[in-house]
Specification:
Layout (H helix, E strand, L loop, with lengths): L2 H7 L13 E3 L17 E4 L4 E4 L5 E3 L3 H4 L12 H9 L4 H6 L3 E7 L4 E12 L2 E8 L5 E3 L10 H4 L4 E5 L2 H13 L6 E3 L12 H4 L10 E5 L4 H14 L4 E3 L9 H7 L2 H9 L2 E2 L12 H10 L12 H4 L7 E5 L6 H13 L5 E5 L5 H13 L13 H14 E3 L9 H15 L3 E5 L14 H19 L2 E6 L6 E2 L2 E2 L12 H4 L3 E8 L4 E9 L8 E7 L6 E3 L18
Parallel strand pairs: 9-10, 9-11, 11-12, 14-18, 14-21, 15-16, 15-17, 17-18
Antiparallel strand pairs: 1-2, 2-3, 3-4, 5-6, 6-7, 7-8, 12-13, 19-20, 21-22, 22-23, 23-24
Helix pairs in contact: 6-10, 9-10, 13-14, 14-15, 16-17
């Protein structure tokens, strides 16, 4: 079905409009509800892309599916020649395996050498369709087809199997399949498309492939035992679900699956699967289980965390997935706004967020505020220095890619219910952090015989278990109890000030307070707890809050002040 027809099916009338470029029409979701201006063309439509956005009600979306979103590979393919077959045979892989995985050859321009070369074509087949091609020339240069769907290699091989193997390269996937044929053992293997080299951690292919792993009983992850390989292994495990992941190791003299096949035998490669170990989940860990990570920290330093671009504040606090951060402060002092500032800055660095926010409703208003922080401009039409109409689409695309809002009406809003949504978002969208804003709007069902202190401790423990199990950070916003006033000013809250329990201080990894000094017209951000000394330190930083853009700017000072208002907590 054509894109225009799909838009028309939604009630978006484009029949009498020039569809060559962006255009406006009435909105089928809100125009009929308005007594005045019901004919106003408030819906902006990009027909070629199939996307739309209403300036009145905030409805946005796309009618394009994966079939039409991506460019289909146009490279000419031909069956592999005897020369290519011999080369694969030298790697222990026969013609039958090449045929099963649809390996072909052809001629392709390779940018690394700036000329056309004879290439091997690893065809990415999904549901019987060729959706992408990886080209490899004789000098081991690689290229994926630009504009085509990024997905995993060998999906049609694994689709009906109850278990599968994930490798770091196409040849390793072929090697496992080959070993299975030689030993009469079924071996269903697929591969990530872009390896695991440092700086190449784009896992968007997993978003397009995750459905293939949902019903698998076991998923064996067989990647290189180096720092990038470990990082890839951990991200795949948390997205697929650690409970079904088994970790594959190779003999000491082998780097990957093809090495085992060539240096040893098909039997030995199959044995690597047979002796694979489950991802450690049993609640007991030994040093050997994490020895690779220990060596990595020794060689490359402690994992400090992500900076957000505030030079001085970054010295106080950095952000890591799998950490639990509490944000508190008096209502009206800007807790939620500062959290939005942080998550937009982290999103620009590739993070994705699940957001439960009763404070920021309706969602369309929250999106407008996020757009302000993303662009650094005031939202609204008519201002020369504000958000312009041409800014909206890229900004909405950014918000759409990095933020996922939990619907308040349709979900279980207990701690457990919100965390379950978080689990779904980790697996489906790969979120790095879950925002809970705020604690007062969570449904608290305290069992008979349990006091508030016991209940709070139990719920915060559930959050800690979630963030550890899924390597997904949690930012919890919570109001303090009534605070003392001195000289007309409210005291600065800490974790011990949060209404309900001292557990709020004890169980979080990081704690900050947002405090607005209305007389000085500044916002103080106090860091009162940092669990790990290599991620930051306690202290305070002053910010200016821009009322027009809702953005924060650091106030330049010569030295970071260490806060004396809170007990120091730097490490366990």
């Amino acid at each position: 079905m054509k894109t225009i027809e799909k838009l028309n099916d939604l009630g978006i009338n484009l029949n009498s409009i020039n569809n060559d470029g962006p255009t406006k029409t009435t909105c089928p979701w809100c125009s009929h509800t308005r007594k005045k201006n019901n004919n106003e063309k408030c819906l902006r439509v990009w027909p070629e892309e199939g996307t739309y956005y209403c300036h009145h009600c905030g409805t946005s979306g796309s009618v394009k599916d994966q079939e039409t979103l991506y460019e289909m590979p146009k490279a000419v393919s031909k069956p592999v020649t005897s020369k290519v077959i011999k080369w694969f045979e030298s790697r222990g892989i026969n013609e039958k395996t090449l045929e099963c995985y649809g390996v072909t050859e052809g001629v392709e321009y390779m940018p690394q050498v700036q000329k056309e070369c004879n290439v091997i074509q690893f065809n990415y087949i999904k549901k019987g369709r060729k959706v992408n091609i990886k080209f490899r020339d004789a000098n081991k240069n690689f290229k994926l087809n630009k504009g085509s769907e990024l997905t995993m290699y060998g999906l049609d091989i694994i689709k009906d199997a109850s278990w599968c193997i994930i490798t770091e390269g196409e040849i390793d996937a072929l090697s496992f399949y080959q070993a299975g044929m030689e030993t009469e053992t079924l071996m269903f293997a697929c591969s990530v498309p872009n390896g695991a080299s440092t700086g190449n951690q784009n896992l968007s292919y997993l978003d397009n492939s995750i459905d293939y792993f949902e019903e698998k009983e076991k998923v064996y992850i067989a990647v290189d035992n180096d720092a990038p390989g470990i990082k890839l292994r951990d991200e795949l495990s948390r997205r697929i679900g650690k409970e079904k992941v088994w970790l594959v190791s190779y003999p000491p003299d082998c780097k990957d699956a093809n090495d085992v096949l060539m240096k040893h035998s098909a039997v030995e490669l199959v044995k690597c699967i047979e002796v694979a170990k489950p991802f450690p989940l049993e609640g007991i860990s030994k040093a050997k289980d994490v020895s690779d990570e220990v060596y990595h920290m020794y060689n490359y330093g402690m994992p400090r965390g992500e900076e957000i671009g505030f030079d001085d504040f970054d010295k106080l606090m950095t952000w890591r997935p799998s950490e639990f951060t509490l944000v508190t402060g008096v209502p009206g002092h800007g807790k939620s706004s500062f959290v939005d500032e942080v998550i937009v800055r982290l999103a620009k660095r590739g993070w994705k967020f699940g957001i439960f926010s009763a404070e920021k409703q309706p969602i369309k208003v929250h999106i407008a505020e996020l757009i302000e922080k993303y662009l650094g401009k005031p939202f609204g039409k008519g201002s020369a220095d504000g958000v312009q109409e041409e800014d909206l689409k890229p900004a909405i695309d950014f918000i759409n890619k990095h933020f996922f809002f939990i619907n308040l009406k349709d979900n279980d809003l207990t701690v457990e219910g919100i965390l379950n949504k978080g689990k779904e978002l980790v697996k489906k969208e790969g979120i790095s952090c879950l925002i809970i804003d705020n604690w007062a709007f969570v449904e608290h069902k305290i069992e008979r015989g349990m006091n508030e202190h016991q209940y709070t401790g139990l719920q915060l423990s559930k959050i800690k278990i979630f963030k550890e199990a899924f390597d997904c950070g949690v930012v919890l916003v919570a109001h303090p109890q009534k605070l003392k006033k001195e000289n007309g000013k409210v005291e600065v809250a800490s974790g011990y000030s949060v209404s309900g329990s001292s557990h709020f201080f004890n169980k979080v990894d990081n704690g900050i307070t947002v405090y607005r000094d209305f007389e000085k017209e500044i916002v103080e951000v106090h860091v009162w707890k940092v669990r790990w000394r290599f991620t930051g330190k306690t202290g305070m930083k002053e910010f200016k809050y821009n009322l027009r853009t809702t953005c924060y700017n650091e106030i330049e000072i010569d030295e970071i002040q260490t806060s004396s208002q809170f007990p120091k907590f730097n490490g366990q």
